[in-house]
Design the sequence.
């Protein structure tokens, strides 16, 4: 199996599974507790059906959309995700270049393995920096300043990861960053020698945004869950978010909003966007799916900020459903991470191309030629 | 396993799977993307229950109805389906003869392997021609003229196939027409020598109705996906549909209407019928199923045109539910194609007999003497 056999999300997933040592694959693939929310994030799209209109003349389809004041050629972007060089040695470089090629946005995580400065020197298309609120305020300030100096367009504060989620697959596989070679995981690393060779030869693994401030995640074997639980400031509140928002002084989003009440407060503190997200089912299991919750949130704040539907998206039709309900755009992490693991930049480009061609085809079949043609008239809930 | 062991959809499907090379079986069997609409098309019937009336002195129920201005003996017919000679050497001839024998419509696809004239010579039964609007409009005009001259009763224009659906099974099996022998598919062909023998010794494989106008799909190995994307006009609009309806000037349906708004417009441009269909879940995955949508459409336009439910029908009770929800008749593609692959004309006849018997038996159990009695009061939706 290789890239050209990958036609959809599950194909990329299968190829990633073949290429990655099992602890790393399961770090991407796993979620919290019983993974009920993780499954629901995708299955929630099956509760609503698309109702096409025919004979509309659809030879040209325009997929462009504007979020955070930036025009993107596609109505979806690549969510910020941590530790990308674990998945492919090019990591964020590959993801950024693929996003640039398709003129869509991508996110760089505070836990990225390539620095904002390097990204900025390569990528002039829209970029988002994702931020965790650390106990160490010096670290927080440094992240903000560096992202601003590097001309990032959007700052997203993650608010659903105040403590590490209970990812039991990671407990079993011994996933740490850098990877810990336990007896159990050793076999899996040994059977994927290419990953090991690349990991050891393609540049030192670092967390450039954190390394001046913390030892965790760099020098010592710290599990990612442990990192969240010890480093992040659990006293973070609305005042802190408001301060960060005004300090940033540009487009600012809260990532991980699920309640209508919080969405309204996000408007009050000056946010220009929110990601309706449960962190890909990786934090609070039993949490509501973004798509299940989307309509309520759009009804409450859709005219005041950009609502982004994040989580569970595997298909162009999933995006059409979210956009029809009023999301301004969709985003996802696994959406491109399996593809990154499967084939680096070429993999991510192939994934974007597949979703794009699905969207074009599905828009035509829906009788729509631009994203603003989509509305709730297109949908029927079962 | 043989025809006489085929009692239902699954049986015909199983036998077809044994007889057909795998790329061809999967071309029939597959839907688009994750096949969630394909599955829902049938599942949706389970959201609704039949409520029988007892002691109704039914006797032998009358299953006849009229459709497209012709009387038919039962409220089901064969949907248009492309390239039937891939499934059985007799192709459309087998389907048309079986339909005539059971007194119902056979439909011919623009992409049939038999010509309009050939079918008209062998069958005097009710016949529907299915049209695609090609970029080269003279192809569509020619098909309309020839269908009229050959005595077809009705015409339907497919409106849900402006671009080919994402049928991933076809990507994987390398399905093209004529079939391309990749190493991967070779094995599957080799294991079904009967099919290969018939394919090679039978009449030359061609798209008989469009061969004079285009060499696509005949001389070269071309996937159906490429054919659709090259030949069909994605700019097709209501004006084009109206033009076809006027030019045909007889019973005319749009095939693939799903929204109430479009159903209303179909009346305005002179349609006498619509086929509620999502192309058997082969086009837009995540699309609503015909049975989920029929009530809304029937409430809006049921008194102004004939509504045909196309998609997901596998049982007599599905037909009963559809009619109670407002359909004049039901049509199906996959089910009869499997029966065609399973046993040619005899296979399709066997299927139509099964369906006739199921509908008849279920009418008796429902306490209905005829289809008119099968109204809205006979079903209850669970939600």
Sequence:
């Amino acid at each position: 199996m290789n890239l050209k056999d990958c036609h959809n999300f599950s194909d990329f997933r299968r190829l990633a599974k073949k290429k990655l040592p099992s602890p790393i694959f399961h770090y991407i693939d796993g979620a919290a507790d019983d993974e009920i929310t993780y499954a629901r994030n995708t299955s929630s799209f099956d509760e609503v059906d698309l109702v096409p209109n025919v004979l509309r003349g659809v030879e040209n389809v325009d997929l462009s959309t504007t979020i955070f004041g930036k025009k993107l050629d596609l109505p979806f972007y690549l969510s910020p995700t941590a530790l990308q060089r674990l998945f492919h040695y090019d990591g964020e470089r590959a993801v950024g270049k693929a996003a640039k090629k398709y003129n869509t946005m991508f996110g760089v995580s505070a836990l990225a393995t390539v620095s904002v400065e390097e990204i900025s020197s390569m990528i002039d298309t829209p970029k988002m920096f994702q931020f965790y609120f650390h106990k160490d305020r010096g670290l927080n300030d440094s992240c903000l300043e560096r992202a601003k100096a590097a001309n990032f367009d959007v700052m997203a504060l993650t608010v659903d990861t105040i403590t590490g989620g209970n990812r039991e697959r990671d407990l079993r596989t011994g996933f740490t960053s850098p990877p810990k070679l336990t007896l159990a995981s050793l076999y899996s690393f040994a059977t994927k020698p290419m990953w090991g060779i690349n990991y050891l030869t393609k540049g030192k693994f670092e967390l450039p945004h954190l390394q001046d401030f913390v030892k965790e995640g760099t020098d010592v074997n710290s599990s990612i869950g442990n990192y969240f639980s010890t480093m992040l400031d659990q006293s973070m509140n609305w005042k802190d978010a408001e301060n960060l928002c005004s300090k940033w002084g540009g487009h600012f989003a809260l990532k991980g909003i699920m309640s209508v009440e919080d969405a309204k407060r996000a408007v009050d503190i000056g946010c220009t966007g929110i990601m309706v997200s449960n962190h890909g089912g990786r934090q609070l299991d039993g949490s509501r799916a973004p798509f299940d919750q989307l309509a309520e949130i759009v009804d409450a704040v859709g005219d005041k900020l950009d609502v982004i539907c994040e989580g569970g998206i595997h298909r162009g039709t999933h995006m059409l459903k979210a956009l029809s309900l009023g999301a301004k755009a969709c985003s996802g992490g696994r959406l491109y991470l399996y593809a990154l693991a499967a084939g680096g930049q070429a993999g991510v480009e192939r994934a974007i191309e597949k979703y794009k061609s699905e969207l074009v085809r599905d828009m035509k079949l829906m009788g729509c030629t631009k994203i603003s043609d989509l509305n709730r008239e297109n949908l029927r809930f079962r | 396993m043989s025809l006489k062991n085929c009692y239902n959809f699954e049986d015909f499907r199983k036998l077809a799977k044994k007889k057909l090379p795998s790329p061809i079986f999967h071309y029939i069997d597959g839907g688009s993307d994750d096949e969630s609409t394909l599955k829902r098309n049938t599942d949706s019937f389970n959201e609704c229950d039949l409520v029988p009336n007892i002691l109704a002195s039914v006797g032998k129920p009358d299953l006849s109805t009229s459709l497209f201005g012709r009387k038919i003996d039962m409220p089901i017919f064969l949907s248009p389906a492309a390239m039937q000679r891939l499934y059985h050497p007799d192709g459309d001839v087998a389907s048309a003869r079986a339909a005539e024998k059971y007194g119902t419509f056979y439909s011919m696809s623009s992409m049939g392997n038999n010509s309009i004239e050939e079918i008209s010579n062998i069958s005097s039964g009710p016949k529907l021609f299915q049209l695609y609007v090609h970029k080269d409009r003279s192809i569509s005009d020619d098909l309309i003229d020839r269908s009229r001259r050959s005595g077809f009763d009705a015409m339907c224009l497919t409106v849900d196939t402006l671009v080919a659906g994402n049928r991933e099974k076809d990507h994987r099996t390398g399905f093209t027409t004529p079939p391309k022998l990749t190493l991967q598919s070779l094995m599957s062909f080799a294991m079904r020598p009967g099919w290969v023998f018939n394919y090679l010794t039978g009449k030359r494989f061609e798209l008989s109705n469009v061969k004079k106008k285009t060499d696509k799909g005949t001389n070269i190995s071309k996937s159906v996906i490429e054919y659709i994307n090259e030949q069909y006009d994605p700019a097709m609009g209501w004006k084009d549909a109206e033009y076809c309806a006027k030019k045909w000037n007889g019973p005319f349906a749009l095939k693939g209407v799903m929204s109430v708004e479009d159903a209303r417009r179909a009346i305005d441009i002179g349609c006498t019928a619509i086929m509620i269909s999502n192309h058997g879940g082969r086009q837009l995955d995540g699309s609503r199923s015909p049975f989920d949508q029929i009530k809304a459409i029937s409430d809006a336009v049921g008194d102004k045109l004939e509504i045909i439910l196309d998609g997901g029908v596998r049982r007599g009770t599905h037909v009963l539910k559809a009619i109670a929800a407002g359909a004049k008749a039901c049509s199906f593609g996959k089910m009869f194609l499997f029966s065609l692959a399973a046993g040619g004309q005899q296979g399709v006849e066997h299927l139509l007999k099964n369906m006739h018997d199921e509908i008849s038996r279920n009418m008796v159990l429902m306490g209905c003497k005829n289809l008119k009695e099968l109204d809205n009061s006979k079903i209850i939706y669970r939600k």
